[in-house]
Amino acid sequence: MRPSFDEMHATSTTVRDHYRTYDRWLGRQERDVMRARREEAELIFRRVGITFAVYGDKDAGEGTERLIPFDLIPRIIPAHEWREMEKGLRQRVTALNRFIHDIYHGQEILKAGIVPEEQITRNAQFRPQMMGVDVPGGVYSQIAGIDIVRAANPDGSGSYYVLEDNLRVPSGVSYMLENRKMTMRLFPDLFSEHRIAPVAHYPDLLLDTLRSVSPGGVNEPTVVVLTPGMYNSAYFEHAFLAQQMGVELVEGQDLFVKDDFVFMRTTRGPRRVDVIYRRVDDDFLDPEVFRPDSRLGCAGLLRAYKAGNVTLANAVGTGIADDKSIYPYVPKMVEFYLGEKPILNNVPTYLCRDSKDLQYVLDHLGELVVKEVHGAGGYGMLVGPAATKAEIAEFRTQLLANPSNYIAQPTLSLSTCPTFVEAGIAPRHIDLRPFVLSGKTVQMVPGGLTRVALKEGSLVVNSSQGGGTKDTWVLED
User: Fold this and answer.
1) Is 168 among the domain residues?
2) Where is the Circularly permuted ATP-grasp type domain (predicted)?
């Protein structure tokens, strides 16, 4: 595995151009002052309630509320890199939305033999109830979180790769916004020394996007955020976004369907709902159609949706495009639907359902990262180079029992960024999740959520696995 690309340092003695001003500032900071700032940030985050629920944690107990560690040192992206990444994100999300529409309509990409039909029809995320259903503007994933990593090239440069597409209910944008507020509070002088593109307008962009996909004929749409409730791991974010957009936060029990329209119970009587930003998975949305035991959704919701009387963001069935077994086909989707070469590359991927790929993976388990196709949060995966012989043997058994449930990728050495840890400032591996909004237009705020693996040498950045977050700066020209 090649040495990691360091975001700040070109060599052990030189700093990249876009980090020079920050590096001079950092050199003037005393460690005790930085440590005090970190403690201040933790205190404020706890007071505000910016936590993340971790389920099934052996050490901390079930459903434990944890603070997501915030690192003081920002990840900085120069303007020219962001412009290229933004173009690639627009292209990719546009193609993915075209793909979802195609799958639930003409299925031209299946007829062309580009994506195998069984990859769709046997996929747990495929919703036959959506066949032939038209959605406003043909947009299925209004909010997408695209995970991007950077790996080192042989010449020492770094290249960006898409690691994962999150098109169902991507989370983390509230931490992006709160991280920026915290950095501005702790280090206001930094913002006079740098021209940093703003992110605070994200809730306004989100609300504009949601309103733009409201049912036809609705001039002043009522938008709500649907949450599974306060025990959900991302409940803070649900409440935060509703508050920032100035819309109601509702649970399934607050809604009802009458004459194929959705209404919200209020103290002034029923009020029609036009757009639901739902943070509830498909399976729990409508007990009439999906899980009959669900108490998180609203009976009749799909009827109202198929009648065109309410918009669900993101659409039912969107998960067919962010399944990890579909990921390897996204570059071909870009070419098929847009007639363009992909700007952002995929990580090379082995489909374990393929006998040749499976044999290669079994022969190289100690070198690869193997993931469940439906897995999330860093669970259900094997990081070969960091695994014990016993863990590899156990995973081999699972892989042989159900090979179609797994994909494998080379172990990329994710880029590193200086991070303030107990021992001082040290490199830690990071990724980036920009949030792409699709309505009448495709737009995003500059940057996204940078996640950092706080354990030395770890490549797992997920919050549920002990990762932290950083403020992400995109410099303006």
Assistant:
1) yes
2) 74-453
Instruction: Say if pTM beats, i.e. exceeds, 0.90.
Output: yes
* Cα–Cα distance for residue pair 82/77, rounded to 1 Å: 7
Helix (H) or strand (E) holding 417: strand 416-421
CATH classification at residue 392: 3.30.1490.270
- Residue with tokens 């649900």, as numbered in its chain: 238
CA-based end-to-end distance of the chain: 35
For residues 459 and 448, what is the distance between their CA atoms, to the nearest angstrom?
Answer: 19
43 and 65 inside one domain? yes
Which residues contact residue 24 at a Cβ distance below 8 angstroms, ignoring those fewer than 6 apart?
none
Residue 452 lies in a domain: yes
| 416-436 pLDDT, tens digit each | 999 998 888 999 999 999 999
Together in a domain, 338 and 366? no
Q: How many domains does the chain have?
A: 2
Domain that holds residue 401: 348-410
83-90 contact pairs (CB < 8 A, 24+): 84/343, 85/148, 85/160, 85/344, 85/434, 86/434, 86/444, 86/446, 87/343, 88/160, 88/342, 88/343, 88/344, 89/146, 89/344, 89/434, 89/436, 89/444, 90/436, 90/442
